[in-house]
Amino acid sequence: MKLSELSLLLERNGFSNQVEAKEDPDLVGVNTLGNAGRGELSFLTNPKYREQLWETRASAAIVELEEPAPDGLPVLRCDNPYGAVAAAIKLIHGTRIHPAWGRDPRAIVAESARIGEGANIGPYVYIDEEVVIGHHATLYPGCYIGRGAILGDHVTCYPNVVIYDGSRLGSRVTLHAGTVVGEDGLGYAKVNDRWEKIPQAGWAVIEDDVEMGANCCIDRATLGQTVVGAGTKFSDAVVIGHGTQVGKHGMFVAQTGLAGSVTVGENVTMGGQVGVAGHLSIGDNVVIGAKSGVWSDIPADERYFGSPAFKWKQFWKQVAAVQKLPELIRKLHRLEAEVAALRKERRGDD
Amino acid sequence: MKLSELSLLLERNGFSNQVEAKEDPDLVGVNTLGNAGRGELSFLTNPKYREQLWETRASAAIVELEEPAPDGLPVLRCDNPYGAVAAAIKLIHGTRIHPAWGRDPRAIVAESARIGEGANIGPYVYIDEEVVIGHHATLYPGCYIGRGAILGDHVTCYPNVVIYDGSRLGSRVTLHAGTVVGEDGLGYAKVNDRWEKIPQAGWAVIEDDVEMGANCCIDRATLGQTVVGAGTKFSDAVVIGHGTQVGKHGMFVAQTGLAGSVTVGENVTMGGQVGVAGHLSIGDNVVIGAKSGVWSDIPADERYFGSPAFKWKQFWKQVAAVQKLPELIRKLHRLEAEVAALRKERRGDD
Amino acid sequence: MKLSELSLLLERNGFSNQVEAKEDPDLVGVNTLGNAGRGELSFLTNPKYREQLWETRASAAIVELEEPAPDGLPVLRCDNPYGAVAAAIKLIHGTRIHPAWGRDPRAIVAESARIGEGANIGPYVYIDEEVVIGHHATLYPGCYIGRGAILGDHVTCYPNVVIYDGSRLGSRVTLHAGTVVGEDGLGYAKVNDRWEKIPQAGWAVIEDDVEMGANCCIDRATLGQTVVGAGTKFSDAVVIGHGTQVGKHGMFVAQTGLAGSVTVGENVTMGGQVGVAGHLSIGDNVVIGAKSGVWSDIPADERYFGSPAFKWKQFWKQVAAVQKLPELIRKLHRLEAEVAALRKERRGDD
């Protein structure tokens, strides 16, 4: 694909752009500034790599509108270079093509299950009674879909995904290998010094356009539903407790865990390994730094960090203050000595 | 089910209770105070939701003996409302009914394996040589049971559970999807600058009535056994290192990890994302707050929190003190200036 | 096996040693000092257990060259007792013998896949088109190998391991149950307030002699490759982000997570539950304590600890200082009062 063609296709995809180039290179791939070679398109979206723009061997680069660039390098300027790169990768590399199983005879589909047109069901898949699967859904080998679960159109479950009975997945949901939806949450009551199981009578709902990484765990609710809102994206090994409600368009990095009955607003970002205690409320547009431990509600539009989590600036101020502590202790001791001396002198005066 | 019937059944289950109601409503489900509608039973077990008792649309509620309740709301009073709710959910909603596979012909069962009466073995299950499986065990599709493993009566393994060779599961053990028992622990010795594997020659034991969430990992021991004690409950993605011994009736929230050779007493509670370093000893009845990092033994009956973990009160005192630090630093500087001024004046006097 | 035979075999394996014993006991197993009984070999490699050497019922023990030992106990002295124990366990207990499936007819192998000699492919394995599998590889039931993936000789994948399309595993790689290699990383761009997927066009490389525990997740790169270097060992539930490069001979304890585009040098040790933020660089021979959160580069040969992580000593100094804080605050208040008193007296003088 020529750079000029790419420019045109990006334009059509809603990324208005302008090309600055003396030539019109052929582009066969996309790569990072450091790794790109001849024939590859690169990009500058993280200022940390700015210097590499001047040394790259890429044949072209996507950059911001005002970004200074070396003379010889053909650039495509755009006000959302990150989005344009995403589109360029799709245009140049394409996306994964699933194996075409149709309805593999080695899959087991219960009689009462309803499977949409164009569904692509791999071998060793198990679909239980009363399941409904939408059009053009793809289930890789080893997936299990429990009784009465409902999966929307264009759902993709990679190998060994497990959907418990009664779970509901919207359209275009993508779950990576080993992810589990709808397992029982940690619900027990102490009766005569034993943990007595509280049947988990609710279910789990994964709304449209959610994507989850590998080995995530989404508990079903004790009563009612656990929800992961439309358009939200999880990385690997994220755990969501029973009855928790995650809003739309969130972004959770790997190994983050929410306890039960948490309410999370829309557009919330959580770094990796964040933990949120039960029954809390996290407002819209909140950003929580990686490894934070949250033990209190967070109002909308705040940025929090630390364990226990505080406002972002306050956290780093505390970190800086703690670093000064050993010196502080020395100062305090010096001061105590000085005051004692003053007092002694003072007494001497009397 | 009428409220009066429920009262009777709870009584028979050991929950003595008294009903205060002008009518005897029909109950078709259990739900939270906020979500319950007509025909649903609700409950107040967490004081955080006390206000909701006055606004609920539930047809009845389980509450503590002395809990004030609105006039029109039929209530069932009980001294262990949490336990009564667990029983009520079981009575009204029932528990999961497993698909009835009997011994599915598409499961593979080695000749020397012994399978108990009434066992329910799904398709795509693999049972290796010399395995023993108890009566009425249920193995969902995709489970793997390694050579010589022993599973007790009424064990339930949800889809894609993996039990390595030689592991031992007691009766009524329940493992949710993707959980792995008996994999090799992280045992290597540095030999000539390489990590040389120490064969993991031990095994893992999961005692009676243990339940684990999805995607947990229980290492086998290097030598001897790793143990999870009877009645202990884990949420999702809990990891137990090789040779670690977890006592009876524990409760571990999701993503908690214990290194190897740890000894944990009975009735221990760990919040989510707790980490415990190797070779430590945690006493009976200990409670460890979520996200704590434990680097030293904890005596019985203590509550610990933080990373490194301290006694609960000490931890929160430290957190409060750290919050005051920036102000403290300002105070100290002011004091230094004052003392310097005093000293200067003093010198002026001489 | 007699102790004298073991001594000889260890010698041949490169562990020069000397036996101090009045008899030549038969050894049928290896066990810890506390658990060993008659006929078992034990060992002292962790000074924490030194006292147990004097009380063990073991029939012999491996110890360091200069270690004092009780009179009656036959000992085998060696300058690398840990390595010798690893070798002794292998010699006495042997290693796991995989079931011999050959090429099980219930495995699915695509026509264009090339399978090496002596490969051992269990039932319910799925091998997609253009896959290459080396000699003597063992794939347990439920493994999925995606299109074009390349696995080296003597690779072992335990049950339900998933290798995505295009991944590359070197020779002697061992992956425990439920581990996933090559799933899509968390790559999205905000376009019109939605998360638009950036196709993950790269792949994942696991070099020779890597071993991973259960339920690990290794993202494929967005572009280019994610790498886990030769000889590196992971425990369970470790997560590696897209484009991250882990060097050779590392050791990562369970539940550790690295974000994307991280570069880790050789011989790096990370404790459990460590988190490393994206785009950082960790030098050779670095040691990072358990539960640390790393937000800045770490130069070679350093030991870091804490969250945010500092140099090891600095971290513990800070922890000690924070413990003193409440007392410090009291002292400061006392000092303020004293200075105020001095100032008042001073004024009284004027």
Name the biggest interface.
A-C, 71 and 69 residues
Contiguous runs where pLDDT drops below 50 for at least 5 residues of chain A: none
Annotation, overall tally of beta strands of chain A: 37
- Count of spatially separate domains of chain A: 3
Any idea of the CATH class of the largest domain in chain A?
A: Mainly Beta
Secondary-structure arrangement, i.e. CATH architecture of the largest domain in chain A:
3 Solenoid
- Tell me what portion of residues of chain A adopts beta-strand conformation: 25-35%
The CATH homologous superfamily of the largest domain in chain A is termed Hexapeptide repeat proteins
Quaternary assembly? homotrimer
How would you characterize this protein structure?
The structure is a homotrimer of 350-residue chains. Chain A is α/β, with parallel strands linked by helices and 350 residues long. Chain A has three domains: 3-93, 3-Layer(aba) Sandwich (Udp-n-acetylmuramoylalanyl-d-glutamate--2,6- Diaminopimelate Ligase, Chain: A, domain 1), CATH 3.40.1390; 108-311, UDP N-Acetylglucosamine Acyltransferase, domain 1, CATH 2.160.10; 317-350. Chain A has helices at residues 3-12, 81-93, 312-349, and strands spanning 17-20, 29-30, 40-43, 60-63, 75-78, 108-109, 114-115, 120-121, 126-127, 132-133, 138-139, 144-145, 150-151, 156-157, 162-163, 168-169, 174-175, 180-183, 188-191, 194-197, 203-206, 211-212, 217-219, 225-228, 233-234, 239-240, 245-246, 251-252, 257-258, 263-264, 269-270, 275-276, 281-282, 287-288, 293-294, 303-306, 309-311. In chain A, the strands form six sheets. In chain A, strands 6-9-12-15-18-23-26-29-32-35 form a ten-stranded parallel beta sheet, with no helix packed on it. A nine-stranded parallel beta sheet of chain A has the order 7-10-13-16-21-24-27-30-33, with no helix packed on it. The longest helix of chain A is centred in the last third of the chain and has 38 residues, at 312-349. The radius of gyration of chain A is 27 Å and the shape is flat. Chains A and C meet through strand 2, helix 2, strand 25 and helix 3 of A and strand 19, strand 20 and helix 3 of C.
